[in-house]
Specification:
The protein is of the alpha/beta class. It contains 14 helices and 22 strands. Strands 1, 2, 3, 4, 5, 6 and 17 form a 7-stranded mixed β-sheet that branches. The chain starts with a strand and ends in a 7-residue tail after the last helix. Bound molecules: flavin-adenine dinucleotide (FAD) and 1,4-dihydronicotinamide adenine dinucleotide.
Length: 477
């Protein structure tokens, strides 16, 4: 008799892609297991993946805390609030962050119980094919053999190292170390002016570090709408982030308490910079090692991602893959949507993910958020478009908040007025972008948004005004 534990669906990885896929599969009536190896400091299970443990959640906790600290130091006085003896308690700030992470880990374990997902704490690996399905070994804290007809690979990604400068999480930090520095470094170096570099650079600058960002490309935030990226570059520089573009990174050498980076700057001059800590945030690589992919012959592409079709089917029947381990943006909400869609496809339903309306947010101050096409892409594609912008400077709620930086920008088809892209830099851009996502999902026109009643005074009026500006009829600017 087989000693395997049989399931309908086994999910490998308990990040946003995996745990959400497992919950949806269980909701659809499948006997479902989820395997995740992440362990907390005490060795216990910590589901939620990169996002919960060393990504979205802890970074936003520190961004919020550091923003409070900066406001207390600079912005409160304008409101007539004088703060005497302002002090940073970094230990408490990090403890709060860890507490929020734990709440999320516990929340996922609760959701597994509620939805009858069987959780295995350990490493999952394909062990072979059996009975029209697959056997999966679990090793680590839990040791088991599972079998299932359907397997969802949701093993996520890890920070990419610079050749010759492996992460030690003491001096050379990935996102993991960057979220847990125990004393504010006087000189913080960041390699890569992408999402992590800007978010983590902002956190530590607000807390007092002198931050230098070295970016390889000559353009700043190349994927962002050029007008918005220009504005962001100006604002971040004004805040004190020293951003150097077009740098070619050379040797990185570690001393006892500092790390030295040699690089050639954009003018071709050799430079040397020494830092107390160095964050390397140059992108992420998919996790597929130790997964037993060779055993079953799962196909990877030349960059190591699991090969999938538009519907997340891999090269093997019954094996699916979602999230950071497959093509597409490395975003938690993209992983979740894929997870739900795959569970529904296994159930014979028509799960769907619209990649054209996946929003992006950079949680700096001001926040940057966008959905759809940028102006430079529309130009490159030869699409005729109309643009409308509205500055937060002219928005009453932004003035009351004391945060009038940035703008909302609409791009709409010149002939049909369909919204093609919305780009926001400014307060609460992360929340404001949802309206644009909904509008684009329903293929709305800018006129549709322009004619909808928005609460006053609210930041969302800037969205309406930018939509009005597409036809040059904004009312408050
Ligand atoms: P992951 O979250 O990486 O989860 C994979 C899980 O699988 C992990 O727990 C891993 O330990 C486990 N695993 C791997 N192999 C095995 C195995 N063989 N057996 C068992 N378990 C295994 N995205 C956003 O949308 N918004 C943000 O604000 C945001 N902020 C971020 C901030 C930082 C600093 C970082 C690094 C990332 C951030 N991201 C953000 C990206 C987001 O974290 C990822 O896109 C998301 O976590 C991907 O989800 P996933 O489920 O594919 O993989
Ligand atoms: P990234 O792709 O956002 O940025 C990497 C940057 O490093 C790029 O600007 C790139 O040009 C630069 N770079 C690459 N190699 C370099 C080199 N050798 N020298 C100098 N610069 C180099 O990657 P990042 O910041 O590591 O984040 C990884 C991913 O995690 C993001 O792309 C995003 O998908 C996700 N993430 C999402 C967040 C959010 O949604 N708010 C927050 C943080 C991460």
């Amino acid at each position: 008799m087989s000693t395997e534990k049989q399931f309908d669906v086994v999910v490998i990885g308990g990040g946003p892609g995996g745990y959400i896929a497992a919950i949806r599969a269980a909701q659809l009536g499948f006997k479902t297991a989820c395997i995740d190896e992440w362990a907390n400091a005490k060795g216990g299970p910590a589901p939620g993946g990169t996002c919960t443990n060393v990504g979205c959640i802890p970074s936003k906790a520190l961004l919020q805390s550091s923003e409070h600290f900066e406001h207390a130091g600079h912005a409160f006085a304008e409101h007539g609030i004088n703060v005497a003896g302002l002090e940073l308690n970094l230990g408490q700030m990090l403890k709060r962050k860890d507490g929020i992470v734990k709440q999320n880990n516990d929340g996922i374990l609760y959701l597994f119980k509620k939805n009858k997902v069987t959780f295995f704490h350990g490493r999952g690996a394909f062990a072979g094919k059996a009975d029209g399905g697959y056997t999966i070994n679990v090793s680590g804290p839990a040791t088991d053999t599972l079998s299932a007809k359907n397997v969802i690979v949701a093993t996520g990604s890890n920070a990419r190292e610079l050749p010759g400068a492996p992460f030690d999480e003491k001096l050379i930090l990935s996102n993991t170390g960057a979220l847990a520095i125990d004393a504010v470094p006087a000189r913080l170096g960041v390699i890569g002016a992408g999402v992590i570099g800007l978010e983590m650079g902002s956190v530590w600058r607000r807390l007092g570090a002198q931050v230098t960002v070295l970016e390889g490309l000559p353009t700043f935030l190349g994927a962002v709408d050029e007008q918005i990226a220009k504005e962001a570059h100006k604002m971040f520089t004004k805040q004190g982030l020293a951003i150097h573009l077009g740098c070619k990174i050379g040797n990185i050498t570690k001393g006892e308490n500092e790390v030295t980076v040699e690089y050639v700057d954009s003018t071709g001059v050799a430079q040397t910079a020494t830092f107390d800590r160095l964050i390397v945030s140059i992108g992420r690589v998919p996790n597929t090692t130790g997964l037993g992919i060779e055993t079953v012959g799962l196909q990877l592409d030349d960059r190591g991602f699991v090969v999938v079709d538009d519907e997340c089917r891999t090269s093997l029947p019954g094996v699916w893959a979602v999230g950071d381990v497959v093509r597409g943006p490395m975003l938690a909400h993209k992983a979740e949507e894929e997870g739900v869609a795959v569970a529904e496809r296994i159930a014979g339903q028509h799960g769907h993910v619209n990649f054209n309306t996946v929003p992006w947010v950079i949680y700096t101050s001001p926040e940057i958020a966008w959905v759809g096409k940028t102006e430079q892409t529309l130009k490159a594609e030869g699409v005729a478009y109309k643009a409308g912008t509205f500055p937060f400077l002219a928005n009453g709620r932004a003035r009351a908040l004391g945060d009038t930086s940035g703008m909302v920008k609409f791009l709409a088809d010149a002939a049909t007025d369909e919204i093609l892209g919305v780009h926001i830099i400014g307060p609460m851009a992360s929340e404001l972008i949802s309206e644009a996502v909904v509008a684009m999902e329903f293929r709305a026109s800018s006129e549709d948004i322009a004619r909808i009643c928005h609460a006053h005074p609210s930041l969302s009026e800037a969205t309406k005004e930018a939509a009005l500006a597409v036809d040059k009829r904004s009312l408050n600017f």
